Amino acid sequence: MADPMRIRAQVAGDKATVRVLMAHEMESGQRKDAAGKTIPAWHIQDVTAQHNGKTVMTAQWGPAVSKNPFLQFNVKGAKAGDKITVSWVDNKGDKRTDEATVS
Amino acid sequence: MTNIQGVVLAVAVVATMGASAQQRTAADGIAEYRKMLEDGNPAELSEAKGEALWKQKRGPKNASMEACDLGKGPGKVKGVFVELPRHFADTGKVQDLESRLLSCMSMLQGFDAAEIAKTPFGRGEQANIEGLVAWISAESRGLKFNLPQSHPEEKKMAELGKRAFFYRAGPYDFSCASCHGEAGKRIRLQDLPDLTQNPGDGIGFAAWPAYRVSSGDLWSMQRRLNDCYRQQRFPFPGYASDVTVALGTYMGVNAKGAVSIAPAIKR
């Protein structure tokens, strides 16, 4: 089971700014270990954000995204008390979903 | 966008004030980069992990760390970090945060402290200590360093640390003081704090533990010192060894009054 994300969502005018920190190794598949063997790629592939259950953003990620990625986006029309849900699935099929309330 | 505006502004300032005007130095650029990263400091992930680990029943004795005394009584975490290293009566030693956690993990949870000390940084139980270190230091964020120096052992450790700091040896004839003994020095673009005095709030001793972007790990003071020794081409004195605790005591005493920003973020 993957470690939890940290999600902060704050109202800014007529939108909400969402900041997400994900805990993931994001191994690119280009590096070699001490024995010279390639370390297999292991990274987040799909990211989905939902606002009160409605999908508002999807993203496809690759090996170029850093370890422990930070993601920031705005949700138009989100108000205080709304629920923001972020999910990711990595290339090994591991997944994680976390929820935050807009403040 | 902001960067372009920044450059335009800098050019305008230089144009109006002439050659003597302050230019954007490399240090300003790094400060700006850190500011941008602060908002998403992955040390937060380690903090969350550490808080959960503190309360979780683990190890051969299946116990949590909540009975661990970090200097302000069992289970007290707030404000302990800015008063470490200090003397502990039960072990009879001056200990920094990491060596104290090792003691608690062996006394309360039944882990083999020597085994953990031998584990490479970032692996196994070492990775768990990094989480604990991140959370415990975060609980003292914004507080001022104020190491106790009333016990004779604490004074002795500060003195030992001072000697270790100025001890020159190795193939480069280096000491800690070679780089950290005066203000205004740098390695490549990194400013080096003068650790023989208080270098200021959130600088030097008051900025560690920190998340290192270049390695993608949370670095404790022990790991920071390990890397300093590696750069001096010294052998590492050993995890949680007396000399590393002594150096921590010396730097901590010098940093008296500095505000801790740990866990910080470093390039």
Instruction: State the end-to-end distance of chain A.
Output: 28 Å
Low-confidence stretches of chain A: none
The oligomeric state is heterodimer
CATH topology of chain B: Cytochrome Bc1 Complex, Chain D, domain 2
Number of domains of chain B: 1
Q: Which parts of chain B are unreliable, with pLDDT below 50 for 5 consecutive residues or more?
A: 6-21
The number of strands of chain A is: 7
Q: pLDDT average of chain A, as an integer?
A: 93
CATH fold assignment of chain A = Immunoglobulin-like
Q: Which structural class is indicated by helix and strand composition of chain B?
A: mainly alpha
N to C succession of SSEs of chain A: EEEEEEE
Radius of gyration of CA atoms of chain B, rounded to a whole number: 20 Å
How would you describe this protein?
The complex is a heterodimer of chains A (about 100) and B (about 270). Chain A is mainly beta and about 100 residues long. Chain A has one domain: Immunoglobulins (Immunoglobulin-like), CATH 2.60.40. Chain A is built from no helices and seven strands. Chain A has strands spanning about 5-10, 15-20, 45-50, 55-60, 70-75, 85-90, 95-100. In chain A, a hairpin with a 2-residue loop joins strand 3 (about 45-50) and strand 4 (about 55-60). The mean pLDDT of chain A is about 95. In chain B, the strands form three sheets. A three-stranded mixed β-sheet of chain B has the order 6-5-7. Chain B has one domain (about 45-265): Cytochrome Bc1 Complex, Chain D, domain 2, CATH 1.10.760.10. Chain B starts with a helix and ends with a strand. The model of chain B is unreliable at about 5-20 (pLDDT under 50). Chain B is mainly alpha-helical and about 270 residues long. Chain B contains ten helices and seven strands. Chain B has helices at about 1-15, 25-40, 45-55, 95-105, 115-120, 125-140, 150-165, 175-180, 220-230, 240-255; strands at about 85-90, 95, 185, 190, 210, 215-220, 265. The chains are: A mainly beta (about 100), B mainly alpha (about 270).
